[in-house]
Amino acid sequence: MIIKPIQANSQEGRVQLSSLYDRFQLADNSCRQAVEDILLSVKTRGDAALVEYTRKFDAPDFSANQIKVNEEEMKKAYGQVSADFFETLKLAINRIRTFHQKEIEESWTIEADNGVVTGQLVNPVDSAGLYVPGGQGGKTPLVSSVLMNGIPAGIAGVEKRVMATPADENGEVNPALLVAAQEIGITDIYKIGSAWAIAAMAFGTETVPRVDVIVGPGNQFVTEAKKQVSGMVRIDMIAGPSEVLVVADETADPSFIAADMLAQAEHDPQALAMVVTTSSEITGRINEELETQLAELSRKEIARASLENRGVILIAENLEDAISIANKIAAEHLELMIAEPWEMLSQIRHAGAIFLGKYSPEAVGDYLAGPNHVLPTMGTARFSSALGVETFVKKSSVISYPQDAFEADASHIKNLANLEGLTGHAQSVAVRMKAKKK
């Protein structure tokens, strides 16, 4: 048995739940100093530092004139992808674009009876940088990362979108990534990876432009670099290990549950695959399916390590308790494999994304359904949302007072300013009132 089932209301279950409720962990600090050094090197040395790091870790013969993907490489990529891939790509783009179009926010104003106008301007940032990990040296291109990050930025109206992704050992980028980027309007692509790519987009170099927002997944060096430049630029989030929680009743298919647990477990040995079920009878069958299906995975060692070290199966007394547990866990992905999932949807308060029914596995959300797959982890779904169009816009308040309205409010403004000891604020009102009397 890979994962021991535990009664949620037992002492062992309460200990397990306590650790799940409090699973937030800071980014790995073991690389903090190394990342600081990389950021400083790129900030002070620019392209020369990018070339040095790329030669050391990715492409031994890399040169400065290779940093940006050229037009020939961009055009050539189209001849290197299959018709099947292109068809799937176009479908995914349409689905993701259609969903995120609904997220567009409009500027607005309110005019009061006294003529005071207040409002909010919604504008896109000027530039955004998308980081796409190398994916086993470029062998497994993370096309979905290009789409999920690049499409909302385009819909937001970001004028300058750039992409950074590591070069392979030959100094090239997988053509699937180049085609995906071009199909959503990104043509500025840079062959740089890890912390030095984040630094280049945060500070700018001779070749790589500085951006206002940096998004995209990555390893501990990428995560730490994003953490260190956050505040100077906006980042999407500090993400933890990927996670799924399946709430299941007696109608759930154990093979489906096991498959979805494995889909998370294969990401990383630290990935978190959880089940809360009202049926003790299916727990044994879930374990049987995990064993059977593990053998079919290309990343079976990673998935097994994840399940054995972090996998969870809890038995709840009833569905209400299971939903309560789910809300407290606030998982990145929440699947409701229950008889009537739509009836329980209104009771879900905290989850990154919610998947309803047995034919809505988390994988549909990763690739094709439309909603973004960049989601809050480690319980941060209690207060955070998925990446979306909002990530790439900022809002400015608008205030316009006519004279009469200003004069009517003047004494109140001075009262508050003087109470706070800010006499300059009060004076800025008083001089206008004095000017009226002249």
Defining traits:
alpha/beta; single chain; 438 residues; Rossmann fold; 5-stranded parallel sheet; globular; 14 strands; 6-stranded parallel sheet; 3 domains
Description:
The protein has helices spanning 11-21, 32-45, 47-57, 71-78, 83-101, 135-138, 143-156, 175-183, 194-203, 220-229, 254-265, 281-294, 300-310, 319-329, 341-344, 362-367, 403-419, 423-437; strands spanning 5-7, 108-111, 117-124, 127-131, 160-164, 188-190, 213-215, 234-235, 243-248, 272-277, 312-315, 333-337, 353-356, 393-400. The chain is an alpha/beta fold and 438 residues long. It has three domains: 5-25 and 240-369, Rossmann fold; 29-105 and 126-235, Nitrogenase molybdenum iron protein domain (Rossmann fold, 3-Layer(aba) Sandwich), CATH 3.40.50.1980; 401-437, no CATH class. The strands form three sheets. Strands 1-11-10-9-12-13 form a six-stranded parallel β-sheet, with helices on both faces. A five-stranded parallel β-sheet has the order 6-5-4-7-8, with helices on both faces. The chain has a three-stranded antiparallel β-sheet with strand order 2-3-14, with no helix packed on it. The radius of gyration is 26 Å and the shape is globular. It starts with a strand and ends with a helix.
